[in-house]
Structures are given as C-alpha cells and as structure tokens.
Amino acid sequence: MARRTEYAKELPCTAEQVYEALSSRQYWDDRIAEIGGTNSSLVGFEASDSGVEVEYQQFISRSKLPSIAQTVIKNDMIIIRKETWAQADGSVSGTFHGEMKGGPGSVSGPRAIRPNGNGCVIESTIEARVSFPIVGGKLEKLLLPSVENLLDGEDDYTAKWIAKNLG
What we know:
Elements: E1 3-11, H1 15-22, H2 25-35, E2 41-48, E3 51-60, H3 67-70, E4 77-88, E5 91-100, E6 105-116, E7 119-130, H4 136-165
Antiparallel strand pairs: 1-7, 2-3, 3-4, 4-5, 5-6, 6-7
C-alpha cells in the first residue's frame, strides 16, 4: 500500500523563470554538482518545444539509512530519478519519479508550478511505495518526509540559481 503527502513551496521567481532554469542543461549540471551528493551524475537531458526530460542518479551510502531500512537494504543505494516538465498558459506541469536501482521501492507524483503574486508556488503530490512485507509501511512513512526535505532543498537551490543566472 502506498502512502501520500502534499508538498508546496513559494518561490520569489516567476513560473516562467523556473521553467527556463529547468530547460537549461547548465542548471542541471550545476544543481547536481552543488547539491546532488557523492557520485551523482546526469544520465540524460532533452529540452524541446514540447518540454523537458531529465534523468540523473544519486548515491546513498547504506550507513546513512535509518536502522529499519538497513535491516532490509544490504548495500549502498543508487537512486535513479526522472523528471519531465512542460509549460502552457503561464503555468508549468511535470512529473517526478525516483527508484532504487534494482530495489523494492519508489517515489513519484505530479508537480505543478503556478504564478503567485510576483513569484510562484511549486506543488507536488508525493507517493511512496515500498514492497517489503511487514516493514514496507514503516519505510514509506520514513521516506515521505525525506522526499519533502529533498524537494525543499532542490527548490531553494532553484531560486538561488535563478537569482544568480537569470535575475
């Protein structure tokens, strides 16, 4: 059984600026280098008139996992993340998906960026699914706030990148 939570963050930049950043290969290279973590890399990037598709991987040491996760995950983790984005009528919509390479769990959901005064709001519905009997639900509960924190940090980085590079 999957668990869900809602996430929203106000940014001091416009939805158009956020989409411009997300459409930039330089943004993704910079973001992964700055906040991607150890051994993170951009696997694929494509931007066209129809939208943006990005794939990247992140490494998480087993020793950084909560003890309950260490009971079922015996190795370091490689997380494969994918994002898609498209712009229409001043708003931006997208999806995100992340899963442990060869692993039993995933996070995914829709994302939206909408105008809000002089800035914008970025929103997500985060769904965590872990298919381990007995401990899966506990791991899903641990995963949701971790993903919220991750998105929060990435969205903060986006606003800073925009101020520095597009402002």
